[in-house]
Amino acid sequence: MRIWPIIAVAVGLFMQSAIAADLPVPTAAYSAQRVMETGGLQLTGQVYHDRGKERWEVSMGGMPQVRIMRPDLSKLIMYMPQMNMGMEMALDAGRQFGLPADHTGPKPEAVGREDVAGESTIKYRTDVDNGADTPFTVFSWVTDDGIVMRIEGKGPEGDFAMYLKGLSRGPQDAALFEMPAGAQLMPANPAMLDQLN
After folding, report:
1. Model-level pTM?
2. Widest CA span of the chain, in angstroms?
3. DSSP 93
4. Euclidean distance between CA atoms 49 and 130, whole angstroms
5. What is the enclosing helix (H) or strand (E) of 47?
6. CA 62 to CA 77: how far, in whole Å?
7. What is the pLDDT of residue 14?
8. Is 71 among the domain residues?
């Protein structure tokens, strides 16, 4: 199984590119546990978010891995602490992995309010058409301060979902969104990622 393309890149970039650009932007800094489910797999890790910057820490196959998203720098870093090395790519790199970078169709439509994990949210429906044979629908639950508490849908590759647990609002340490001093950083490409099993 190709862990990076299928999980760390695919689920995160897929969900973000499919709906996040048209949903409210988070105005609150926060941390939480993020659970992602796709293709019968579940991945749970700690997420930290502050003014668009995001860090997601997970363990796959017993190896800790970190994804740092920096929209202010238009880049994504995948860092492997045990190897003290990271791979950097442009935020729109989802195109390299056959993932949708854009979609056409209606903007997200607010369809009501629902509580999710103790948070009052607005539920949105987005009909996604990324040029695939079968358009699909994504539902998103977003707090009034822009935190996406849950996403779920059924896409061309099957069901997918993301949800947060243990949400805690508050400022996040700026160092979370940087590579550690002395870590090796190299550009990433699909061939390199295919080697990570």
Report:
1. 0.81
2. 49
3. G
4. 27
5. strand 41-50
6. 20
7. 44
8. yes
E strand or H helix that includes residue 21: none
pLDDT at 101: 41
CA distance 147 to 72: 18
**Helix, coil or strand: residue 193:** helix
Give me the amino acid identity at 131: G
Residue 189 lies in a domain: no
3-class SS shares of the chain: helix, strand, coil, % to 5 = 20, 50, 30
Burial-class residue 70 by CB neighbours within 10 Å (0-12, 13-18, 19+). Answer: middle
As given in the structure block, the two tokens for residue 109 are 């439509």
What residues form DSSP beta bridges with 42?
Answer: 37
Token pair for 149: 């508490």
Task: Tell which residue, 172, 177, 173, 143, has the closest CA to residue 54.
Answer: 177
Q: How far is residue 90's CA from residue 101's CA, in Å, rounded to a whole number?
A: 12
Residue 11 belongs to some domain of the structure: yes
Mean pLDDT, rounded, of the chain: 79
Q: What is the pLDDT of residue 93?
A: 62
Domain ranges, residue 105 = 3-179
**Could you report the average pLDDT of every consecutive run of 10 residues in the chain (197 residues)?**
41 48 84 88 91 90 89 89 90 51 63 96 84 76 94 79 95 95 82 48
Total domains present in the chain: 1
Query: What CATH number does the domain containing 71 carry?
Result: 2.50.20.10
Q: Is residue 161 part of a domain?
A: yes
